[in-house]
Amino acid sequence: MSAASADDIWAVGSERGDPAVIRWEGKTWSRVRAPGVKGGGRLVDVAALSPAHAWAISDHSIFRWNGARWNPVVTPRLPGLRFEFHAISADGPRRAWIVGSYADQTGGRALALAWNGSAWRFVPIPNRPNVPARLEDVGEYLKDVSILPSGVFWAVGATIERWDGQHWRRIPSPQGRHGWSVRALRANDVWIGTSSSGALYNWNGRTWRRTAEGRHDDSIVALAGRSPLWAVRTSGRRAPEVLRRGCATG
């Protein structure tokens, strides 16, 4: 889900095996014709900038909304045997990032693509050697991304990565946990939600501080907002919970 404004909110996913898009325009949710995804399937994420500008991704394709329809966008040539997109974030017409994973003969790798206003390009990320080649195994992958106004962006997954415009810096994971969602508010105010524990952590520019703890099979699958900050925590055995800056609301 992504909001360009309070009256322009997009959500994507799948319905009966086909990609689905719905949009909030101030009063009600309405269906929007979804882009054609090869072989059917789902849309995995959306980034809305304005009523005439939004991005959506499937596992393997990129689409751009022009105010009337979705158009496919050329995906750059990527290394490896196969790849998957997991998340997209955009903060303007000339800056957007996609993260995910790919696999080659040596193992699973974290994937990052950057939009410069005219084309997507592959941005290599330093990776650990000798990790499993299967994407679903515990190897290198990135699950979510968040961009600061300065252009610095954070990505989380098996590792936590920060891009400063020129270089990657790997940030130590809190208690070695995998990140599932991220929301960067300022350089010294970054939030991540973890998988397998449902914990919520805040980065103050130097260290991580745990602000909420779930159960061993919980995951924080989404973070949104600024003040307040909202989080969605899921479990395989219970209904999802909505957290509002430290308190469960449902």
Find the CATH topology of the domain at 1-73.
Lipocalin
As residue ranges, the low-confidence spans are 130-138, 246-250
The CATH class label of the domain at 1-73 is Mainly Beta
The order of strands across the largest sheet is 1-2-3-4
Percent range for helical residues? under 10%
Distance between the termini: 19 Å
Estimated structural class: mainly beta
The largest sheet, given as strand count, sense and whether it forms a barrel, is: 4 strands, antiparallel
Q: Report the order of strands and helices.
A: EEEEEEEEEEEEEEEEEEEEEEEE
Strand content: over 45%
- Oligomeric category: single chain
Shape category? globular
User: How many beta-strand runs?
Assistant: 24
Q: Count the helices. How many?
A: 0
What is the radius of gyration? Answer: 17 Å
Mean pLDDT: 85
Judging by the overall fold, what is the CATH architecture of the domain at 1-73?
Beta Barrel
Walkthrough of the structure:
This protein has a domain at 1-73: Lipocalin (Beta Barrel). 0% of the residues lie in helices and 56% in strands. It has strands at 2-5, 8-15, 18-24, 29-32, 43-50, 53-58, 62-65, 70-73, 82-92, 95-104, 107-115, 120-122, 142-147, 153-157, 160-163, 168-171, 179-186, 189-194, 200-203, 208-212, 218-225, 229-235, 241-244, 247-248. The strands form six sheets. The protein has a four-stranded antiparallel sheet, with no helix packed on it. The chain is globular, with a radius of gyration of 17 Å.
